[in-house]
Amino acid sequence: MSKVLVIAEHLNGKLNAATAKTVSAALALKPEAIDVLVLSDAPDAVATAAAQIAGVTKVLTSANAANAHAIAQVLAPQIVEIAKNYSHVFGPSTTFGKDLMPCVAALLGVGQVSDLMAVESPTTFKRPMYAGNAIVTVEAPADHIVVATVRTASWPEAATGGGAAVEAVSVSAALPTHTRFVELAAGKSDRPDLQSAKRVVSGGRGVGSAENFKIIYDLADKLGAAVGASRAAVDAGYVPNELQVGQTGKIIAPDLYVAIGISGAIQHLTGIKDAGTIVAINKDGDAPIFEITDVGLVGDLFQILPELAGMLASS
Ligand code: FAD
Question: What is the mean pLDDT of residues 209-228?
């Protein structure tokens, strides 16, 4: 029987929703147990939240000042020590997991299953390749611990209502000092997190400038949405690259995705394949984005958006 260790992603004492999605993937294995590991300097609040996830057997915590920041090289040896009791180690395929899990796999001497999107058996999984244009079935060796990143856009958050026990564990692994936290440079925003937002409004090259992007931020704020962008908009310097959606940006699955002045290149569409309702505003009626939209508005964004904002204000 499988025993899965899920690595909790968290920031500032808050559990990231990617963890509950990773638990969903773990549940698909029908395992004997799913334990969530919280590595932090102060794990209590995160552990309490993780214990609420339905299907979690136990939450393990390791409090260590060295875990104040999620540095892959520091976290990985601790995970490897605990992983010895498990058949599978899963982390989310987010920036956090993509950084951390390959280190875990390397220290365990196994190959990593990346972007797990479906479970066929405890060692057989489906994952996308070629920017999501092909789905490949991969088989992990049965006699090794399976290390995988879970494609969060493919899995719903596991329900809450669980009541797992929380257990502090001590870890004796020697931690490297060659990699240290220096500073975190991140844009400050009160908007929802792009990766986990239920609604996302994205702008592309058609928006035309950083100043014009205000119209995108305004619509996002009216909808309570996160802001995203195409790579062309990022490359042109309209917005920071943490907002990029797509193959080389963030893969997201909001309930509502609004693409404004975005043509719909395959590399962009890869990032929104699992979105619920897709709306596009583009002045070119032949833009490829319209092939995948649920609602398409053909017209000039600078005319349509103020009209839309007016309607939202009066509704
Ligand atoms: P464009 O393709 O230039 O489209 C702009 C659109 O705006 C047009 O359709 C135009 O009709 C419309 N428009 C212009 N003015 C207006 C107006 N006033 N009103 C309404 N509509 C208007 N791209 C990503 O987005 N994410 C990725 O992660 C990504 N990764 C890549 C990885 C690789 C290896 C490669 C090769 C490319 C990648 N790209 C990625 C780039 C991708 O191929 C496209 O170049 C990019 O997505 C185009 O961005 P865009 O749609 O904003 O720009």
Answer: 96
Q: How far is the CA of 263 from the centre of ligand 1 (A)?
A: 5
Is 181 inside a domain boundary?
no
CA distances from 173 to 9, 45, 69, 84, 111 (A): 20, 24, 17, 13, 22
Q: What is the pTM of this model?
A: 0.84
Domain identity same for 25 and 152:
yes
Closest CA to 92 of 15, 32, 201: 15
| 48 burial via Cβ count (<10 Å: 0-12, 13-18, 19+) | middle
Q: Are residues 99 and 150 in the same domain?
A: yes
Helix (H, G, I), strand (E, B) or coil at 253: coil
Token digits of residue 14: 């808050």
Q: What is the pLDDT of residue 187?
A: 72
Task: Tell me if 97 is assigned to some domain.
Answer: yes
Each residue of 178-218: pLDDT tens digit? 998 999 887 777 899 898 899 999 999 999 999 999 999 99
Q: Is 177 within a domain?
A: no
Residues spanned by the domain of 284: 199-311
Report pLDDT for 130: 85
**Ligand 1 pocket at CB < 6 A:** 204-206, 230-233, 244-249, 261-263, 265, 267-268, 271, 281-284, 287, 300-302
Residues 24 and 154 in one domain: yes
The total of structural domains in the chain comes to 2
